Amino acid sequence: MSFVNRMLASVGIGSAVVDTKLDGSTFQAGGNIQGVVHIQGGKVEQNIDEIHIYLMTEYLREVDDNTVTETHVLGKYRVSEPFTIAANEVKEIPLSIPLPYDVPLSVGQTPIWLKTALDIKQAVDPTDNDYIHVVPHDLVDRIFTTVEELGFRLKKSQCLHVKRHMQRNHPFVQEFEFVPSSGPFRGELDEIELVLYPDQNHVQMLIEVDKRGKGLFGFLEDALDLDEQKSMISIARADAEDPQKLKQMFENHIRSYM
After folding, report:
1. What are the pLDDT digits (tens) for 146-169?
2. Around Cβ 84, how many Cβ atoms within 10 Å?
3. Do 14 and 47 fall within a single domain?
């Protein structure tokens, strides 16, 4: 084993290379990400202490009147025990990573990716990033379908830093902003904003109803943001099994703030 090669490997030249290969690019919240971690040995034998995969995303935060982008680790997963990889050896390690139910969805500009990192002592740790597309699990999908059936269309979605009382597992929430383009609320509302806190069989949902201002008082309401009404509702899987019942629940709830 050449001293020069060992020295170069310690700064990442001729070191092992990692490449995570996923079974697909689209995954469902609450499901599993499956694939293999492909490791190509470098010019020298190296001891790999462990391999970690990080589930990553970004969110927006206000700092001193400026909007900055923060990177956040949604989850950290260890996928191997320590091992040695010989020069030019190839290893593949199967992986199966659970996606949380509350992982952000791939809507708008929200990126979600896996960062694979080899931990090699006294060397630069090789990394690999793989971006994925996350779709909602079935209960959240039914909620979005119901909102669309009421004539709303998604205008914008983004992950925003929130105060501690709104945080659950992360320092941010994903906000979905819908506007009425047809149906019973067109011309009556400016928008509704939804924040979802899902698990396997329930979704707690913060809903903000922004009424369309009418007349002088309506103008004052808009100016003072008095037209925004916030509330929390809970939707169980049983509620979503009857689409008409779920639709009526949403409609009645929104109308209660008009």
Report:
1. 999 999 999 999 999 988 777 888
2. 11
3. yes
